[in-house]
Design brief:
The chain has 22 helices and 18 strands. The protein is of the alpha/beta class. The longest helix has 23 residues. A six-stranded parallel sheet has the order 9-8-10-11-13-12, with helices on both faces.
Length: 642
């Protein structure tokens, strides 16, 4: 599964439920189960509203968990009114259900009502939970950490003498991560009875009840959409205090909208869930909203509250530029082409087949495709074993996970002098919507020092084909191919006569007054447009150079490319620390250039923000106006020295 955004759509009237309607439910004189049913029905409407308005988010897992989260916040969590630091603790370890959680918090008045309109916006609500948001107790989105964090909280609470119950919601897909299973044994050994883990068991992945018991946990099971059953299950746990508890809550992804519900909403291969991420098309939104409104109306009638009131906002249309470069799609085609030439090439994936562009490969070569699930360490070591037996493995995941979670396994594989190609998509600060857990801005630093590992990033579709061909045929080293997933228009063309050589790049825009090094589509495009503006306003001509190699530079080529320019600027779609610019600055220092030569490094300098792509680039100074400002400052510094 992954985090796709919807690239284009029409203007649409979106409908949401104001907080006053949630308050009517909470204050209704009715049994807790009936109130929870109505509250969850309203929360589904608002979760869909948030995702449609943000053009991205996770419908399936938000809808599957709303009865659970509603019951917890209405009936289980004590002292909510005292604030997030003085109440029982709840957090979702999977994180994809953030729109559902936000809908519950806003409905209870625990978050400002206007935040409903600000999902995945700077200053709004992040795509994955972040502790800067009130009542968010843990950063999540990176899977498998929840039980470990809960154990730490429990032990800290015991030390402080502040007993708190801790509820952790996890997804059954998340249970493929090894850390989850590592965390279970000591929780039982330490008798951490204040912890309750709830598994949102939507059965897209396997059964886990017996495994949990084997680790010493008390395990109950219930229908995760039957509020009365949820109530009975929690009450049955009240007497269990000597060990941690787990509830396997059987749920349905996309619950509440018939055509979004699994297994009906699985693709033609009966494997790929169709509503995991992204906003639904306009008609599907309207059809789904009608079903949700009908359910809310029935729930209100059961409480004698009449019909629920809703309000509307219009979502502006979104238009994708006509001529964009889609590097992930280009990679998928290039991979299939290479597979036709190399029968020993095998592909491994970490549950991101669509996001990594692997659908065609899996269909064409099913015997050479291995779905490893959400288990990057296992995947990399499997690839390591393949490489030892003569296979060329190509392993895939998001860059933020592939570079970090199996980092030790990649190092081990490279130490064996075998060859594996790693492909990390969703690289860099864009898309900005998912938030910092998915914005991969430390992968270059995490991998660049590993011996026998060559790092590269293409800027154009043709360069994807060229670099993959080079990495397969022209080097004995392992490689990491870093792919930006957002589509982007380019103001320059990939040279038709370029010969790919490690450590060397090519000029995207000529200039004599400064040289700007960069890589990747949007970074080079923004640099090109910034250089155009500077030339039009000051007459200074900046040379834009694409260096696709992230941890390798040819010293002679570098010296020739800089030439007589005394202003050198290195751009990074990455933290400045540990990025390509740091490598270039060190290499330039060894060249013995004119003492007046100055290197400026521009990139990410703080935890990346969550927001729209334009918002995120502007915040970090990587949009065209931000680069214009920083390019001018670099030129002025050298002029002052002269």
């Amino acid at each position: 599964m992954g985090d796709l955004q919807t690239d284009q759509g029409e203007a649409l009237e979106l409908r949401y439920v104001p907080v006053s309607e949630f308050t009517r439910v909470v204050n209704a004189k009715a049994n807790p189960a009936a109130k929870a049913v109505a509250f969850a029905a309203l929360a589904r409407i608002n979760a869909l509203y948030m995702i449609a308005g943000a053009w991205s988010g996770h419908i399936g897992t938000s809808f599957s968990s709303l009865e659970i989260m509603t019951w917890l916040f209405l009936n289980e969590l004590r002292d909510l009114g005292k604030g997030p630091d003085h109440c029982d603790i709840f957090f979702s370890s999977k994180g994809h259900d953030a729109p559902g959680l936000y809908s519950v918090l806003i409905g209870l008045g625990l978050l400002p009502a206007d935040k409903l309109h600000q999902l995945r916006r700077i200053g709004g609500l992040p795509g994955h939970p972040h502790v800067e948001t009130p009542y968010i107790q843990a950063n999540t989105g990176s899977l498998g950490m929840g039980i470990s964090k809960a154990k730490g909280m429990a032990l800290a609470n015991r030390l402080a003498g502040t007993p708190r119950r801790i509820f952790v919601l996890t997804g059954d897909g998340e249970l493929q991560e090894g850390q989850f299973w590592e965390s279970l044994g000591s929780a039982a050994n330490m008798n951490l009875g204040e912890i309750v883990a709830i598994v949102d068991h939507n059965k897209i992945h396997g059964d886990i009840e017996a495994k949990l018991r084997a680790f010493g946990w008390h395990v109950s099971r219930c229908d995760g959409h039957d509020v009365a059953a949820i109530q009975r299950t929690f009450r049955s746990l009240d007497a269990i205090t000597d060990r941690p508890k787990a509830i396997v809550a059987d749920t349905i992804k996309g619950r509440g909208v018939s055509f979004m519900e699994g297994p009906r909403a699985l693709g033609t291969d009966n494997d790929l869930y169709l509503f995991h991420s992204g906003a639904p098309p306009e008609q599907q939104y309207l059809d789904g909203l009608k079903q949700l409104l009908d359910a809310a109306t029935r729930a209100f009638a059961a409480l004698d509250l009449g019909a629920p009131n809703t309000e509307t906002r219009t979502r502006n249309p979104r238009r994708e530029p006509r001529d964009t470069h889609n590097l992930v799609a280009a990679y998928g085609k290039a991979l299939v082409e290479q597979a036709g030439r190399h029968p020993h090439l095998m592909v491994l994936d970490a549950d991101l087949i669509k996001d990594c562009g692997l659908l065609e490969f899996a269909a064409r070569y099913p015997q050479r495709f291995v779905e490893c699930g959400i288990a990057e360490q296992d995947m990399v070591s499997m690839a390591c074993g393949m490489a030892r037996r003569g296979v060329l493995p190509v392993a895939h995941s998001f860059a933020c996970f592939l570079s970090t979670r199996p980092n030790e396994q990649i190092y081990n594989q490279c130490s064996e002098a075998s060859k594996v190609i790693y492909v990390g998509s969703l690289a860099g600060v864009l898309p900005g919507g998912p938030g910092h857990s998915h914005q991969s801005v430390r992968d270059i630093s995490a991998l660049s020092a590993i011996p026998n590992l060559l790092l590269a990033e293409p800027a154009a579709e043709k360069e994807v084909h060229a670099l993959l061909d080079y990495l397969i045929h022209e080097t004995a080293e392992s490689a990491y191919l870093r792919l930006v997933s957002v589509k982007w228009p380019l103001p320059f063309a990939y040279p038709s006569n370029i010969r790919v050589e490690a450590g060397k790049g090519w000029i995207a825009r000529p200039g004599k007054d400064a040289v700007v090094f960069g890589y990747g589509p949007w970074l080079l495009s923004n640099a090109w447009h910034a250089a155009e503006e500077i030339e039009q306003t000051t007459g200074s001509r900046l040379r834009i150079v694409n260096l696709p190699w992230l941890n390798r530079v040819d010293a002679l080529w570098l010296k020739e490319t800089i030439g007589t320019c005394r202003t050198v600027i290195a751009l990074d779609n990455h933290y400045v620390h540990g990025g390509q610019g740091e490598m270039l600055a060190a290499a330039i220092a060894e060249l013995g250039l004119d003492s007046s030569t100055r290197v400026s490094r521009i990139g990410v300098t703080e935890l990346p923000e969550c927001g729209t792509n334009d918002e995120v680039l502007a915040h970090h100074g990587l949009d065209v106006p931000g680069l214009v400002k920083q390019f001018r400052a670099a030129l002025e510094r050298v002029a002052q020295i002269a």
